[in-house]
Amino acid sequence: MSDADAVRALVNHRYFQPHRTPIQIFNRATDPFLPRVKTHLFDVLDDLDRRGLTNHVLVVTRYRIDPEDCARLNRLRHLKLTLLVTYSGIADQRIEPVDSAIAARSLQVAYQHAQRYRVVLYWRPLVPRLNDSPEHLARAVELSRHAHATVFTGLFYRGEIADYYRANGLPEPYDHTARRKIVPETLERRVLEAFDSATGGPLFRKTSCGVSFAHGVPDCNGHYGVRELCDICPLSQLGLCADAHRPPTEAQVRELAARLPDKEDLEIVQISERAATTAGLDEQPRYFLQHGLGFQIHDQRHPHRRRRHGRADIGWQREATA
């Protein structure tokens, strides 16, 4: 379909909420800054911006960003655009075929020219014994000074990736696969210590936290209720998120859920200061509620454990669920 048709399909989708739903563009099967793709990227961004939408728009890239690209992005007037420059520092081309030096340069160029958009160092995936040496950590701290925020995260070590490692004779980073990203406790501690001791830029565990900080707004996913995520956040951001943190009533959840198909399947198990827990609600409708309410909506089938919200259990001592 054309870019215009794609935008119309997006804004008319039943789960799209103007000024609320975070949008990602060309983040799956390609890179938005490849020469044959970025023309479409700019056209889609211009279309969304002409509509006066103020939604967060996340553009994830590890490719080249030129000053001319930055000038084009600075013409946007309404969208909260964030460039998330993916950097891993992994040198093995069997795992990371794109040289991380390209991303490092793009980060610096984008940050230097940023006016109407923001830049996040998307430090991922962190993998023990692969890119977690003291030198790797020091380089990430250095790059963090060329970004409005830094977000770190681990590896989605799923079956397809495990098969690839084995087929190519690569040392497997973990003994088991997981449906969530893996960030072992010791690795997280070393990351936090590196940024603290070397005065790195603002560091976040969650993408939406870093993006929201960069734009000076409360977290659109309502992570403030999961307080152990917030112990590394700047005080200014904590204040914004605290002011916006309002656990919804059951009536408010059901009022918004009335816009969903199959809403009769909604079962609200619990609403606490941390999150609303539901049963029988799949991921996309849960995100619809989460963005509409600015509050965490969890699934009873996949409990969130304290201190590793949304992460795999691998590398952590077992604790009670949140």
Give a written overview of the molecule:
The chain is α/β, with parallel strands linked by helices and 322 residues long. The chain has 2 domains: 3-204, pyruvate-formate lyase- activating enzyme (Alpha-Beta Horseshoe), CATH 3.80.30.30; 247-322, no CATH class. Helices cover 36% and strands 12% of the residues. It has 11 helices and 9 strands. The protein has helices at 3-11, 35-50, 67-73, 100-113, 134-144, 159-167, 185-197, 207-215, 235-244, 250-257, 283-293, and strands at 23-24, 56-61, 80-87, 118-123, 149-152, 203-204, 267-271, 276-279, 297-299. The strands form 2 sheets. The protein has a 6-stranded parallel beta sheet, with helices on both faces. Strands 7-8-9 form a 3-stranded mixed beta sheet, covered by helices on one side. α5 crosses α7. The longest helix is centred in the N-terminal third of the chain and has 16 residues, at 35-50. The mean pLDDT is 92.
